[in-house]
Amino acid sequence: MTAMTILRHPLPRHRLLRRLLPAALCIGVLASCSSLNSMMGGSSEQDALKALKWTYAADGVQIALMADPHLNQSTDQPHTLALTVVQMADPNAFTAATANSAKLTTLLLADSPPPGMLALNRVFVSPGEQRTITLARVEKAQYVGLAAGYYHLDPARSARLYRIGVEVNSSGIIVTTRQAAPEPLKIDLRLGASGIQESPGAGAPPVTLTKPKAGPVPPPAPAPAPAPAPAPAPAPAPAQQP
């Protein structure tokens, strides 16, 4: 049969509709599955995230640290380092507390959580030490900040901010119910001779209603340099006397 024959004898309309109807029904079913699931008492991932509770967990923060043998080196000698761990709901609290060396020093010396923070723990790390620190995740905590007391007190090398991830579990076959819960935050921390290694820096983007993924928070983009002021116009030369 040639192409011309096919063009001259198209499928009857009823046969064409019969072929297209199953595909249209499938599309309609898929589009209505979410609504039908909700009507029957189920829930979507968005529903689970809206109902998410940032609850307490006894082992919610786990820090596997490895310290360089030359940790916190000064005058050719390694030294023990103080590591401050804070938890908060708003990442801006940590960003403000580590904005410069003076504020970082205040955080490192704090005996209780500063304003905007929910918990503060301090541990001491020796040169060459390897161990895992397990801390309780306090209620409402969504971020964990680390501040290391290096001699140089440079926030870019001493402070890191991490976001706690969320896991969404589903149950049911005909009606699917989903529940969201915070995941344990696991941090691999490498403390080098003069700074934290293998961990992107502090700062956090605005949080949208999506499933949070555990891990380090990227640093904010640097502010653009101000434009130079225009040079003043030269003064006119004095007129010469005739």
TrEMBL record:
**What residue stretch is flagged as signal peptide?**
none
Bias-annotated ranges (Pro residues): 215-242
Region entry Disordered, spans: 196-242
Determine the domain of life of the protein's source: Bacteria
Q: Which UniProt keywords apply?
A: Lipoprotein
Q: Which Pfam families match?
A: T6SS-SciN
Protein name as annotated: Lipoprotein
Species of provenance: Bordetella petrii (strain ATCC BAA-461 / DSM 12804 / CCUG 43448 / CIP 107267 / Se-1111R)
